[in-house]
Amino acid sequence: MNPLPPTTTVIHRFSRRQFIQYGSICMGSGLLAACTNSNQPANSNSQLDKVSFGTNWYAQAEHGGFYQAIATGIYQKHGLDVTIKMGGPQVPSGTQLLVGGAVDFFMGYGIDAINAIAQGIPKITVAAIFQKDPQCLIAHPNPAIQSLADLKGKPIYISAAANVTYWPVLKVKYGFTDDQKRPYNFNPAPFLADKTSAQQGYITSEPYAIEKQGGFKPTVFLLADYGYSTYATTIETTKELVEKNPDLVQRFVDASIKGWYSYLENPQPGNQLIKKDNPEMTDDQLAYGIQKLKEYGIITSGTAEKQGIGAMSEERWKALYDSLVTAEVYKPNINYKDAFTLQFVNKGIEYYSR
């Protein structure tokens, strides 16, 4: 295993004490200092800018480019000393962590960025690593289930977050109803026990787990191919940081994008760090995740084909917002353009090969 560069640290799963700290993030300046300064490398190079990045789940292939940028020294070449703070089911939201000052950047998604504007929260999306959200619905093999529309009336296990993301869109477009919903607790057992049911998941993860545990290959519907147009695995930060230190933001975005190009070409360095941070992750799962990221064009399709990984467009953001207004998630008076900036992306593939 390649060792970490001496100026970079990866934070392992949050302890109960850290969870309490982060959950109370807005309670006092002393606590904020503890969140911000904890777990910094003892031998940091003072010439590098310290940056913390929060992920949305345990380390996995879906985070590979960020780990790759650490493992191969890309962040260091851009003058950055990056600490990755790994997420999980009990870690507070990225909005909490950003606004509270516990992280400088966070791995977000498009709908939440618009939601922040609706609530007057001063965060902004500066890049979109995933052109397609890996969110999918998974069903048992059944000749009668050939498309997403065929799940109408069937029990579907979804998370609470789905109620303000993809579920309202599916209700409008496919006639799904709330009585179909079942609570999803990130355990496939209820789905496996009920052959009439479906469940949510990531195209890169849950189908693999279901195939291993259930002994069958499930039917998978990627929501991005059915009109759910949100960006995912975005890079979010505060508007204050964009205004006060755009050079730092640009370097972090550029280095992260270059990390993703490197990871897709040779993921071994990043995978070694992922497994160090998340010992339960296996080589097979990582290989499966990378295969699906490529197969479905999660990272390099759309605008990113010419403008480079991380690309965004005003048209995509407008289409997302319009779909959420139609689904009555938001009112048509939100200035959704405040949720993102194109200042740091869309520089062309050649730019990222430098």
TrEMBL record:
Residues 61-268 form the SsuA/THI5-like domain. Pfam families: NMT1 (PF09084). InterPro entries: NMT1/THI5, SsuA/THI5, TAT_signal. This is ABC transporter substrate-binding protein. It comes from Nostoc spongiaeforme FACHB-130. The lineage of its organism: Bacteria, Bacillati, Cyanobacteriota, Cyanophyceae, Nostocales.
